Structures
1.
Amino acid sequence: MKRIFKNIALMACAGLMLNACDLDEFNPSAGDASLTSFDAWSGLHSYSYSCLNDELYTAMDWLYLAEGGTDLWVAKSNGTNYKQLFNYEDPTSNYNTFQKVWKQCYSMITNCNSVINESTNLNDGDPETIKLLVAESKTLRALYYSILVCHYGPVTLNLKSSAGITGDVDLYPERSSERDIYDHIIKDLTEAIPDLGVEPYQGNRARFTKKSAKGLLARVYAQRAGLGQSKYGDANTYWKLAAETAKDLIENASSYGAYLYTDIADMWADANNRTNKEALMIAAGPDASSTAWQYIGKGNKLSAYSCGGSYSEFFNSNHKPGDKGYFYGRLNSQNWMPSKYLLYCFNPEWDKRWEYSFQYAYCEWSMVQCGWVPYSAGVKKLNKSICTKYDIQVDETVHPDSTLYPYADCNAIASSNGAGNQYPAKVWPKGDYSGDPNKLLSIGKSAEEAKKPGFAGSTKVYAIPYPVAPDDNRFNTVFVHKPLKDKSKCLYAVVVLDDLFGSNDLPYGNVDNGSEAANPPAIGNGLTSSSACPSLIKFNWSYNGVFYGSNLQIKTGDMFIMRMAEVYLLAAEAEQQLGNGTKAAEYLNVLRKRAARDQANESSWKLTTATEEDIFDEYARELCGEFSRWSLLKRHNAFESRLDQYNKRAAQSFKPYHYNRPISYEFLSTILNKEEYGDNGYGSTAGSGLVE
């Protein structure tokens, strides 16, 4: 399929004028469409990365496509916009999310094709550099095609240069078999690995390297194995390849430049976000201190879409998170929330991934460091009506003044390059109410540093050390897995996670399609689904260089496309599917050990064997929210069983044809063989087009 959506010449020129994904070189216009100049050619190559930061990994479309409609997430309320994604209720080919991901991937694939095909026509450039950049383009093309074939099934495998170069547009595209598409993805990656460097080209962290292609290859083998189970009868062949590839990357990590942190706190440390050693591929966000800031997309609002906020009445007037969110960011845009299954996957008694994945405790904040918001503005004296509503049984021997105090204090640091102020936060010590900024606790740059005096016990300010003490009056809301025995000592609202959901496990407020969840419990947990819930914090950062001034919905941190932990999960998954449960458990235990608290007994986290259910659970704990759940359920043909257990609303509408997303209506409206191509069975064409 040729480039249908945009004129490649215009796109190439635009791409050559701007850098992308923190690719700092400046690329002049090609001048012609032949790409014989290295500068023009390498500029188009750089532009092929742009979709990662500008669209795919910073916008809700790909996130909700990759995570929604699974056992991990539910629509927070009953809004029409997300019924198609989260509940499979009348999805259509003209729904914007389905169209955007399709368009983004194919537009970049065409650029990759041009770079690869035209590399032999260059008049200048170092041959070794050209070979390296071709390998990068093959890895990029493999990534984009892996998204398309997983979500849309047998689409068109186009390997031709853009219409701006070839001069023709194919308006009668034909589908390719999923087998052929996967074969070519695997070919691209196996050819790319030897030619890629261990270190990124020009030291640019956004570039793909040897470990990127190797990790992606393991993922692709696993996804192909699932297709072998459901269609081709060759699943074991590809599970073995997935196991071997993952094992090689794990056992020879240093030769690939790969690394796994030994403490989950280091993995999610804000100090490691831009230089994360565990990352295999990233979508590099712009740094406010870099001159590249002005040229790179700054639209990442995933933290705002993921954070549910706290009960507003616990905050002082005109200081609510949905208004002036200098600490959390604006918390008035959440439209999805974790399912009951996901929340109870975690056992926080031993697993630190709980607080490093979810904001389970909420607080007030101040801005004493910069003089913007006094300490007193974060002080809240509880009145009788609040205590009655949230079942706060004030023990006057513990809290004689019934007053809550700030937990965090944000600074305001001016930046250059038009990035606006930066608001990194520190923590007020428990029991100190002086408001003296000299007493603030710093966030650790490493797990070891976080434990030292003068530090807050965490490498991420939003990761609240577990558990919150009953007498800690720096928090207003704390979500717990089971009722507290000493609740009477708590000045904060205690919300049991189970009370977020009705008996059918749908959140209160999600009232359609058989839900009984119209009236949540009134005492202690009232209206939780419409005002507060644990919030995913993997996309929320607080360090100098990640803020976008007064636009408090945007955070510009690096996004992880794939990290080394997934390779361990893939190794475990493949071994389990091959009948080697003991070996699978060994891989899982590496991840579980690094997540375990210092005081946790080995018996609480160590597995002796692993079942398929263990694989599902460990993926949930480790990778929730990281663009992977839908593909996992697809390769295990598990939508029906998992949704029936953990997402009953989605289960009611799920049909077998939902294993493939609808083909883009915009694409179908452009080609001249729409009816023959088909829309995967969603009703906008006479047939599905699925003939394989």
2.
Amino acid sequence: MNHSFVVPAYGESPHLEACLRSLAAQERPTSIIVATPTPSPRIEALAAAYGAQLRVNERGGGIGIDWNFALSCATTRWVTIAHQDDVYLPRFTAATLDAAERHPDASLVFTGYAERTLDGIRVDTTLLRIKRALLELGFLGGSRAGTRFFKTNTLRFGCAIPCPAVTIDQARNHLRFREDLRIDLDWAAWLELARRPGAFVYVREVLMEHRVHADSETTAGIAGGARAAEDRALLRMMWPGPVADAIAATYGIAYRSNPA
């Protein structure tokens, strides 16, 4: 077994069981690890019910700390940070690892995704269309972005690579997320990986569903202004200040129409 799902779990999420059920139902066997700074009898029982290991983060203190702890719990080469609110289709692991096998230089592999809302599954929204278009700046209709230029192109106008759909070659990368960010720590991490050797590989098939709801950290970050501030800071790493601010303002329109 060379793949693990690590699931940072918090509080009493009503969606954690659906997430774990989807991980346990993968067509290709995988390891499941629940990592939590808020242990509870419910989290412990759900982990046991779905064959997951339970690891407690005694440090806590923020999403970057929690994600880094979760990554440290995995011993496999390939690791997916599964968000506790999301659902993974049965072919996710198999398709991801098959793509990694076809591209031995891959540093990360990610799949297409849909949005899961109270109104059902959405596969075509303003934000999803924008992100798919941005990805083509690096992939140009293909499945592999191998140079720093093309990898960075996928990230130059925003974080088009969906964090919960990403599987990292942790044996190669030894990735650590920035702990000073609240929302854009995934974007910052992919920018870091774009500077390193290794290809980004894109599996276009929709193989996971990202839940959009008012209680999510992303939605709270948009409402509180954290995302806009972090967007501008990362864009300014690639663009002159006025250009970065204009891009951030334009991207914010999509957040308002679909905050995810």
